Amino acid sequence: MQSTVYAGAAKWTAAKNKDHQFGLFRLKAGSDDWENLTAGSLPDNCEVRAIVVDPRQTNRLYIGTQVGPYLSEDGGDSWKALPLRSDNAVTWSILLHPTDEKIIYAGTQDQGVFRTTNGGTSWEELDVPEPAGLCRMGFPSRTVRMCLDPSNPDEVYVGVEVGGLVRSLDGGNTWDDIGRGLMDLAGQDHLRSQIGSDNDTEGMMDTHATTVSAAHPGVVIHATRMGLFRSDDKGETWSEIGIGKHSPLTYARDVQVSIHEPETMYAALSVAAVSDAGSLYKSSDFGETWSRYDHNVSVDSTMMHIGQNAKTPDCVVAGARRGQVFCTEDGGDSWTQIDLPGDVQGIYAVACA
After folding, report:
1. How many domains would you assign to the chain?
2. 204: which DSSP letter?
3. Which of 149, 159, 298, 348 can pair with 145 through a Cys bridge, CB separation 3.0 to 4.6 Å?
4. CA–CA distance, 115 with 302 (Å, rounded to integer)
């Protein structure tokens, strides 16, 4: 491997082995062996659900743990806590401002959103409303993913699992619930799903990822249990992309615009939250058509997350729930499967640098 790959795992209740291994792992460029980075300056029994590499300085790495965010300035060799000083610190997502490295957002359990303007020295919990479509499940709601419009960084989108989307147009000072259009789509028979709540809008509220391209300001692409969806008006109204026309797998766990090519998107598609198959798809025309991107590998569980290398468009990694990591370094022509060591399960995040 010419790139360094990171993988984060946390406790996963559906794992066959309830005592499975989890934490933060690194495969250094040129190495064949994963390192477990959870000893030392990271918390005991570290659970990692978010990994973000700063594209401006790729040795700068942020992770989300069960006790808040952590920062490494040396590619993971050492770590510093960035404490939220809140009872609501289980961190599911981290978002970096593209031009001001001091502004960072952290998304937590119970749909919490925190913001720092000084690089993590102190944090403010933002006044984010409870989404109208919030479904009460057998687990706490969580701010599972956040994104912003690269052409207007004050335009921030926050995904709540299981609760839809909220939006800020002023950098987090005020917020609007923009899940109504998604709830309206749940009126269609094929977009109804009810597994763990008392509401059949649950599937559409089962938010997993959201992304915006600099080439399409105001256009939001959204991934849920029910597939991929698009809004052309900053989340006011929504339409179905129809990923089922291109893929037999439609449970969408991740969707990302390419860092390097704003018309290109990647999507992690599977059967369900707990399944024996997953896949990685690519669109080169901003979601009009899709084709399978990974090949000649066997994905034996739900594909959870996609990682991109800020240095090169040819390197993309993807992580599957039961401990598999897949990597291409030649733009998808060939793929390498790199299984995590031992009994690591519950992958939530991957990254590469």
Report:
1. 1
2. H
3. 159
4. 31
**Strands 316-320 vs 324-328: parallel, antiparallel or unpaired:** antiparallel
Nearest one of 25, 28, 15 to 51, comparing CA atoms: 25
HSE of 251, CA atoms in CB hemisphere, 13 A: 18
How much of the chain is helix, strand and coil, in % rounded to 5? 5, 40, 55
d(CA 325, CA 304): 10
Amino acid of residue 211: T
State which residues form the domain around 189: 5-352
pTM over 0.90: yes
CATH of the domain at 123: 2.130.10.10
d(CA 247, CA 62): 33
pLDDT for res 40: 78
Read out DSSP for 30-92?
Answer: T-SS-EE--SSSSPTT----EEEE-TTSTT-EEEEETTEEEEESSTTSS-EE----SS---EE
Contact in structure between 129 and 174 (CB atoms under 8 Å): no
Joined together, the tokens standing for residue 261 give 């090519």
Using CA atoms, how far residue 187 sits from 193, 201, 324, in Å, is 10, 8, 36
The pair of three-digit structure tokens given for residue 111, joined into one six-digit string? 């749909």
